Each structure stands twice: as C-alpha cells, then as structure tokens.
Amino acid sequence: MNILNSILTTAKPLITSFILLDIKSGLTSAKDQVIDLVKFAVNNIGIPIIDTVLIGVLIFSIVGLIKLKRQGEDYSGKIAAVVVIVIVILLISTAPLWIWDLIA
After folding, report:
1. Is residue 78 a contact partner of residue 65, using CB atoms and an 8 Å limit?
2. What's the pLDDT at 28?
3. What is the mean predicted confidence (pLDDT) over 1-10?
C-alpha cells in the first residue's frame, strides 16, 4: 500500500502536467484554425465586397462630377471626396498584405 501511495504521489504531477500541456496544445490548435478561417473570410469575402461597394461609390461620385461640370457648376469641392475614395480603395485592396501583421 505504501509503494502504491508513493507511485501515485510521484506520477500525479507528471500526469497533471501532461494533461495541461495537451489542453494548451489543443487550444493553440483551435486558435490557429479560427485565425485561418477569419483570414480566409476577410481576405476572400469581406475585402472584395467592401471594394465593390467603394468602386460603386467612386463611379457614382465621378458621374456626379461629370454632371456638375456639364451644368457649368463648381465641382472643385467634390474632387477631394473622389481622391479620398480612391485612397480608401487602395488601402482596403492592399489590406491582406499588411493588416495581419498589424493585428498579430
């Protein structure tokens, strides 16, 4: 009985550390899978949708500028909006290259 107690006392920390290590590796693996899924969704679904909407807004803004020019009205204040939209499109389009380094 004394030998069994000794074996259990010695083995308990080893078993506990092995179980904790296994749980930690499991959580790390699950976290990596979630991050990969989020990266896929953002890079292949979210960013193209946002870019498409912004390109639509850009086209709408350019058409509005053309109408203002044809009507002979001042459109110089509206050009800044087009420039900002183009810059945002460039940032969003290139986001997969830099955003994950910034977040991680």
Report:
1. yes
2. 82
3. 62
Answer whether 34's CB lies under 8 Å from 26's CB: no
Rounded Cα–Cα distance for residues 54 and 26 (Å): 40
**Cα gap 41→3, rounded to integer Å:** 57
List CB contacts of 64: < 8 A, sequence separation 6 or more: 78
Q: Specify the pLDDT at position 32.
A: 87
Q: What's the predicted TM-score (pTM) here?
A: 0.70
Question: Is pLDDT at 66 greater than 80 in this prediction?
Answer: yes
Give the Å distances, CA to CA, from 10 to 4, 16, 22, 98.
10, 11, 19, 50
What b/e sequence results for 57-82 when a residue is b if at least 16 CB atoms lie within 10 Å of its CB, and e otherwise? ebeebeeebeeeeeeeeebeeeeeeb
Query: How far is it, in rounded angstroms, from Cα 21 to Cα 100?
Result: 27
